[in-house]
Amino acid sequence: MGVVGNHIDEVRDLIHEVRNLIHEVRDLIHEVVDLIHEVADLIHEVRDLIHEVVDLIHEVVDLIHEVVDLIHEVVDLIHEFRDLTHEVVDLIHEVADLIHEVADLIHEVAEHMNVWVTLPQPLTGQSASGGPGATRTPDKRFRKPLLYPPELRGHSRRETGRG
């Protein structure tokens, strides 16, 4: 057997090495396929996470729209309040003007009647409600004589009324 036998043994060893290499390549291919499956699973997870993020972004956008709508409502209410405040101020000015007109009319009537309009002040030592020695209407023109007979009238330092 000599040379041929040696070649057959070498060929058999080469076939055996090729078979081992094929097994190693097959194992590597399986590992690559497993890695491809893992990458595909990761891609699916990332895709699902992206969908969740997009859904959350839509929710945030909806909430922002709601907040903007609420801000618009608050601004509208502030404008209404401002307008009502202006109306109240205008009404207060009108009332003040009317009070001034009434005061002017009272002074005109008082001047026409030749009477000074002042708030009554209590006499020293007397109560403001017309206690002993004083009446609530010291000007005799405005008192009814039957309600203030002379014996109930108080005496003051000066008489202020006429006739």
Shape: rod-shaped
Radius of gyration over C-alpha positions, nearest whole angstrom? 56 Å
> Biggest β-sheet, characterized?
none
Series of H and E elements? H
For the termini, the CA-CA separation is 174 Å
What is the domain tally?
1
- Spans of at least 5 consecutive residues whose pLDDT stays below 50 are 156-163
Percent strand: under 5%
- How much helicity do the residues have? 55-70%
The count of strands amounts to 0
Q: Quaternary status of these chains? A: single chain
Mean pLDDT: 82
- Specify the number of helices: 1
The secondary-structure class comes to: mainly alpha
Task: Write up what this structure looks like.
The protein has 163 residues and is an all-alpha fold. The chain is built from 1 helix and no strands. The protein has one domain. The C terminus is likely disordered.
